[in-house]
Amino acid sequence: MRAASSTGVQAANGVTNRKSNATVTDVEPSNATTEERVKATPPLQKKYRHVAAVHAQTRPSCLSHDAQANPSFLGFRNLMVIVLVVGNLRLMIENIQKYGVLICVRCHNYSRSDILIGLFLYFLIPCHLFAAYLIELAAAQQALGSRKRIQDGQAGPSEEDKKKFHSTWVLVAWAHGINITLGLAITTLVVYFKIFHPLIGTLTEMHAVVVWLKTASYAFTNRDLRHAYLHPVKGELVPELYASCPYPKNITMGNLIYFWWAPTLVYQPVYPRTDKIRWIFVIKRLGEVFCLSVFIWFATAQYATPVLINSLEKIASLDIPSILERLLKLSTISLVIWLAGFFALFQSFLNALAEILRFGDRSFYDDWWNSESLGAYWRTWNKPVYTYFKRHVYMPMVGRGWSPKAASLSVFFMSAVLHEILVGVPTHNVIGVAFLGMFLQLPLIALTAPLESRRMGQGGKLIGNIIFWVSFTVLGQPFAALMYFYAWQAKYGSVSRKMGA
After folding, report:
1. pLDDT one-digit tens code per residue, 199-251
2. Catalytic: which of 197, 231, 392, 419?
3. Is 419 considered catalytic here?
4. What DSSP string describes 398-456?
């Protein structure tokens, strides 16, 4: 009896186990195909796990140059951001413990006249762009009245037509030249002698330079459009994009106002446009501008300014080791402030402005942080300026027979002058540091140009990128900030110097 009972229990348990296994493995339906049954069968576990060949093929390390797939450095990027934030935050807390909270809206030394003059210039500067419109309007009216028909088979304008067009362009060019020169000269003189707050002066001078560049582009582009309208040359066609607004229909106030606000320095009668405005996108970008501006203000007042103030005595006594120490200490915060300013301007503000205007081409920068030479950096970090000088200075000079080196020299000379105007004039110290810092980029570009070539391999590109970052973050911006701050304090004295005493 016991044996029978035991046998019955075992049998019952066997039935139970089979039912349980069927539930777990999901018994296939009777109509399943053989292939489906094979796929549904769980793989058999290997018996000899400890002798599995885990090293069965040749494989390079993840960071080696011969790796088949490039690894992602997202984690390293996050680590570097955390290190920069934590390191600078610690020094900000240290300055709060030493000096207290230095953020104060009413403590800024600006007068009411600075604000009034700045506002007056803000509305006066665009008047020169309007004057350029009037000049082009007169030229367009003359072009409408004097357009000649081109005979069949004629390859281009006659010599007489060329002379007449050239004489007209000379008059228009003189008018444009006087207009844009007065626009920049008047603003520069007023800022230098009448506006003593550096921020207000910098914003005003930057507005004047932008309008100056836009006015020149407006004149050059319409000059070529007018030439193509009066004397078309076979094989030299106006871009098809301009067909919806051909010359002289583009000479209107609406077209000019759009160009004034468009996030570009290069004039075109027509730009690629988006279908609609994404207002949520605009709000997010403007929110980024506000938050980053507050951060820049806080970091400048709570970290950069105390470092600059504590550097004055070291510079005056020419204490070289201490100056180098101040320079290195200033390099981290200047880099953080510059990166925040870059993102606020090129990514947030220009994208918000482009969205509002439905401006389609938003390639305001490329991956300049991967620059393998100084030349690659200047081509990628500020594309509106780069495309402007390439279109209106470099290519026309090369097309007229100038060598590429001479054209590059002219571009960097003009850029160096504009940098000195933007930095030296608002600080009332035209000492040439910004000019030399920009103009002396040419030797560094020549030095690092071979490093980005394929002949040097990945090692050359890595060295070029390191040279770019060191020269830019350690020797460039911090040194310029020290020199202009010292020149400002030496010229006007310092109320804030008492804080460091």
Report:
1. 899 999 999 999 999 999 999 999 999 888 887 777 677 888 998 999 999 99
2. 419
3. yes
4. HHTT--HHHHHHHHHHHHHHHHHHHHHTTTT---SHHHHHHHTHHHHHHHHGGGGSGGG
